[in-house]
Prior knowledge:
The protein is of the alpha/beta class. It folds into three domains: 4-140, Serine Threonine Protein Phosphatase 5, Tetratricopeptide repeat; 204-378, Rossmann fold (3-Layer(aba) Sandwich), CATH 3.40.50; 381-486, Helicase, Ruva Protein, domain 3, CATH 1.10.8.60. It contains 20 helices and eight strands. The protein has helices at residues 4-16, 21-33, 37-50, 55-67, 71-82, 89-99, 104-117, 124-130, 218-233, 235-240, 259-270, 279-282, 289-303, 327-341, 384-395, 405-410, 417-438, 446-454, 461-474, 485-488, and strands at 150-151, 178-179, 204-205, 247-252, 273-277, 307-311, 351-357, 375-378. Strands 3-5-6-7-4-8 form a six-stranded mixed β-sheet, with helices on both faces. A two-stranded antiparallel sheet has the order 1-2. β6, α14 (327-341) and β7 form a beta-alpha-beta unit. α15 (384-395) packs across α17. The chain starts with a helix and ends with a helix. Mean pLDDT is 78; it is low at 134-181 and 183-196.
Amino acid sequence: MTDEATLNALREAARLSPENLPLRRHLADQLLASGNPGQAEHEYQAALALSPADHGIAIGLAEALVRQGKNEAALAALDPLLAMPEHPVRAGVLAAQAMLPVNRMAAAHWYRYSIARDPSQADPELAHRLGIGQSSSPAPHAQPQTPPPVSHAQPASPAPAPPAQPPSLIPAAHSPSVIPAPHAQPQAAGGQYGSADVEPTAEVEHSPVTFADVAGMDTVKEALRMKLLLPTQQPELFAAYGKRAGGGVLLYGPPGAGKTHLARAAAGELGAAFVNVGLADILDMWTGSSERNLRATFAMARRNRPCVLFFDEVDALAARRSDMRQAHSRQIVNQFLAELDGVDEHANEGVLVLAATNAPWYIDVAFRRPGRFDQMVFVPPPDTVARAAMLSLMCRDKPQAKMDFDKVARATDGFVGADLKGLVDRAVEAKLHESIRAGRPIPLSTGDLMAAAKAMRPTAVREWLGTARNYVLHANESGAWDELLPWLRDLR
């Protein structure tokens, strides 16, 4: 349990650096762990305002609310997460806790459904309160069943038919409401889920980031410049060779290497619209809706050309069809392929499709056909020179003494961009403690970064390369993974 002095130091640091998201979230987590859910609620709300799409913060807020007995507010915080096709399991367990006082049956349904997906999230005390014995707990890897919707107003009567549009999880103040079971299918064909006209949830942005804000990665930037940027910037030259603006590039590499940052920089370099497509923007529990969402997203990109359309974690949308058990999942892949091809050869002209994945070997081979993602670009871990440049960029807006970023770069072999960002955040938090005690800002030093580097380890590069080795050595008949061979020679 965190002592009060540490909490006070964290509070003061958060007051001095109110937009420091990791610090806000850390303070909220520590307050919750120390039995201060009311104060934790306030900090989670502040963190959520800085990062509204962060699922972990929303779950922390819901937990703080449940511990205070604010069950309706907790359900309101969980509502967007539980509407996802694959909601976070912890969110389902918290929903069961919040529903328990008003609808034991619905709470039991949500609890069973959630822990069937991840038995490690089982809560024996909650299961006892729900009247669920050990014998009824799901076996590991059991398929979660979809229970019927339940009305907490009349638990003994048959459940009412679900409406065409799923209701909110927030109970009405003065009238009975139906709390939907996980992924219950609507019976009506019309309304929001039966209409062919779908408004995409992804938004058009204009990225302020350019290649000047991306340290190192010169080979990757040159590949993106030749494939995506120059055909738009010099259309006459490329037209002379029969090349048009548009096409697709698949970025792959270890987690945290900067694939999303590169995509934003490509859009900023071009001055094009940028559409960052997340899984929640496409995947939907209702049959046919995912395909409509995908079609609507491409249509929006075509209306805003030149446009960089970016799909993160694309392996979830473009997985190998031979691995899929459900026809619905294969239809999503088919729709994606059709949108990449376009209704005619000019349909996607000016639409630059970028995709990123940590697992390119799981992507259906049809996506690598010319005219689709015909160029795969490996985004490697940064080398020593790139790490020094990245550290310099990350520290440029902070008070600092004379820094030896090369020294820190040499001490951070195997660190990717996300690791370096965490290193700088840790050094800044330590420096904030010193500044609070001194009553004045103290410049960041090389020693601060070195101390943080000694306390950290690279997160995922070696594990990712270990997985990649299996494909490079045993499934590389086409030569698709030759680019990874130099990186595997030094893997012990």
